[in-house]
Amino acid sequence: MTDEALIIVDLQNDYFPGGRWPLVGIEDAAGNGRLVLSHFREKDMAVVHIRHEFPADNAPFFAPGSYGAQINELVLPKEGEPVVLKHHPNAFRDTNLKTLLDEREIRKLTILGAMSHVCIDATVRAAVDFGYDVTVVHDAVATRDLEFNGTNVPANQVHSAYMAALAFAYAKVMPTAEIVHTSE
């Protein structure tokens, strides 16, 4: 066992086509996430799945008990891989994630999933604040178009801005090919 873990954040059905909150590029991001997941499993490294549910049935997406709140089939957990349920963007907030990682003496995290500007950003920053060495797999992360003050911001610009900010001060930001290749 190594001191490294893969954290898959919110790759849930509502983010995919036909879901309640589809993201731009989610299928490509999840496909890359699946490659990274397979690599971690082959190397017998720890994997933790994060699943978001809003605490109310009238949630805009990820409603409790819904198909949309389930983890997508591309990255389904296998037996023995913990699934952490969260109700906030930060996967560490009010969850047992830090305890799970500390019990396994994990110090290095590789993070992928959704959305770039919310849960990935919040979880990466919290992880660094807790002292973890963090890598983000940028092409295994997706987001959506945003609007601010009358300006529409395309998803690729949202994603690029957040990856640039994380790379500047918080994490190594790398593509799938480098993660799979450099960890061998």
UniProtKB/TrEMBL annotation:
Keywords: Hydrolase. It comes from the Bacteria. InterPro entries: Isochorismatase-like_dom, Isochorismatase-like_hydrls, Isochorismatase-like_sf. It comes from Gluconacetobacter entanii. SUPFAM superfamilies: Isochorismatase-like hydrolases. The keyword Acetylation does not apply. Residues 5-148 form the Isochorismatase-like domain. Pfam families: Isochorismatase (PF00857). The lineage of its organism: Bacteria, Pseudomonadati, Pseudomonadota, Alphaproteobacteria, Acetobacterales. This is Cysteine hydrolase. Gene3D superfamilies: Isochorismatase-like (3.40.50.850). GO terms for molecular function: hydrolase activity.
